[in-house]
């Protein structure tokens, strides 16, 4: 196709246009703040309503997240967010007490959720590694992940990549969207960098 002077068509056909510069996926990781909680709630509730990666069926409320934020703060446990340069919360990761008995004080359960568009780009690995590092600094010795046995391949692969090993399975312990669901337990030994300070309930 040739363009003559004065030809009004100035836009190249799509297949001749230069490829756009690849989009840079940038973010920073920092401790969660109370102002992040509405966004964290939305991210989590998306999976409550649309997936079986969490066995929660009820959408979470802001008071629920305020309480969790305050509890983790009292226990000195990490609650991290990944935020875009514009300040949008892209995802979060937190470590919470495992099984709620004092003698489990050196063990935590992780929870990690990314918002729409943030998955599959390596952010999960960076966020989970940051959570592991923070727990090691606190003197935590073991991290456990409790993962749905259905449609949670990304989580299982993510935890495997970061050194977690399967520690057991329980089939048919859950029921959501009319289907039976089980849980996969994964665990990783941490390398605590100091003695764990015992906070609050622990
Ligand atoms: C699980 C989650 C945090 C992983 O984060 P992510 O940034 O998407 O993960 P990564 O891009 O680092 O990829 C991790 C691995 O999962 C794989 N993966 C990513 N998306 C996948 C998908 N939809 N299906 C299967 N595997 C997938 C990647 O290929 C990668 O595998 P590899 O290490 O063998 O290459 C994220 O996908 C998410 O928020 N999922 C929904 C919520 C959830 O399941 N949370 C965990 C609850 S236990």
Textual characterization of the structure:
There is one protein chain. By secondary structure, the protein is of the alpha+beta class. The protein has a single domain, classed as Aminopeptidase. It is about 25% helix and about 30% strand. The chain is built from 4 helices and 7 strands. The chain has helices at about 35-50, 60-75, 125-140, 155-160; strands spanning about 30, 80-85, 90-95, 105-115, 140-150, 165-175, 180-190. It has a 7-stranded mixed sheet, with helices on both faces. Helix 1 packs across helix 2. Coenzyme A binds near residues 112, 114 and 152.
Low-confidence stretches: none
Q: What's the overall average pLDDT, rounded? A: 92
| Distance, first to last CA | 74 Å
Classified by CATH, the class is Alpha Beta
Largest sheet: 7 strands, mixed
Category by helix and strand content: alpha+beta
- Could you give the count of β-strands? 7
Beta percentage is: 25-35%
The CATH architecture assignment turns out to be 3-Layer(aba) Sandwich
The total number of structural domains is 1
Query: Could you tell me the radius of gyration in angstroms?
Result: 21 Å
Helix and strand run: EHHEEEHEHEE
Strands of the widest sheet, in order across it, are 1-2-3-4-5-7-6
> How would you name the CATH homologous superfamily?
Gcn5-related N-acetyltransferase (GNAT)
CATH topology: Aminopeptidase
Provide a count of the helices.
Answer: 4
- Give the CA-based shape: globular
- What small molecules does the structure contain? coenzyme A
Helix content: 25-40%
